[in-house]
Amino acid sequence: MARLRPEQDAFGAAMLAHHRGQHAVEVIERDDGFIDTSIGPEWYFAPFRRWPPVERAAIRHARGRVLDVGCGAGRVGLHLQGRGLHVLGIDLSPLAVKVARLRGVRDARVLSIREITPRLGRFDTFVMYGNNFGLLGGWREGRRLLRRFAAMATPGARIIASSNDPYRTKNPAHLAYHRLNRRRGRMPGQVRMRARFSVHCSPWFDYLLVSPEEMRRLLAGTGWQAPRLFQSRGSSYAAVIEKAPESVRPSSAPRRSPPRGRRGPPARR
Predict the structure, then answer these.
(1) At CB < 8 A and 24+ separation, what contacts does 137-142 make?
(2) Which residues, 6+ apart, have CB-to-CB distance to 94 below 8 Å?
(3) Does this model's pTM top 0.85?
């Protein structure tokens, strides 16, 4: 995705409005016409004690130099800085990065996930919170990015990510969308969406929701091992994913086709 123009930065505009004490509601539009509001800007500002239990449990495994992918308003960066870790926060949204800096994140930059390259250095931990495992976008692009992360990871590095199981819902609109995705040859939880706030509207982008089993299949052969899961009572979960030993070469693994997904309920947004 190209750099956002000011009128496209809907997410960041909502974050900045909330930071300034204004009422802010971000609207999410899916490419089948489904419209809903997001979880709310205040969630991106939440202190550690208000994080979901699965996120609090998994983030304890962060160590060393950290890349916070999709840093938003900086909640992860502020928490890990408080633990004495060096954190680089990146986000496609210029206004979100502005808010993160205003709140005290020391190193926050405007970069998309596709602009992550070895020029940023090596990392001991990659954090993808707020369902930001979804920024991988889809099967082929996701596996390409995971291999890139592995090439930038130190021995024993980790990805700490959260996602949402796209099959744990009974919402008819989501069930219909998953059927549509299967007909289009896409993963059932691959959402084509855009965000709106006030006069701002983002470009369309892909956002991937996966079940734990789909996460395992996506990781296989990319330089990462099967995840250790922290599961909630609902559809959300967090994962700690260890880098595979250096003797395991990702390129030697057989290629896999994208999973079609089991026939069941889709994502709860």
Answers:
(1) 137/190, 137/205, 137/206, 137/207, 137/208, 138/186, 138/187, 138/190, 138/206, 138/208, 138/258, 139/187, 139/190, 139/218, 139/258, 139/259, 140/258, 141/206, 142/208, 142/218
(2) 3, 4, 6, 9, 12, 110
(3) yes
Tens digits of pLDDT across the chain (269 residues): 578 999 999 999 999 999 999 999 999 999 999 999 998 899 999 999 999 999 999 999 999 999 999 999 999 999 999 999 999 999 999 999 999 999 999 999 999 999 999 999 999 999 999 999 999 999 999 999 999 999 999 999 999 999 999 999 999 999 999 999 999 999 999 999 999 999 999 999 999 999 999 999 999 999 999 999 999 999 999 999 999 997 444 444 444 555 554 433 333 33
All domains in the chain, ordered by first residue: 6-19+26-245 (3.40.50.150)
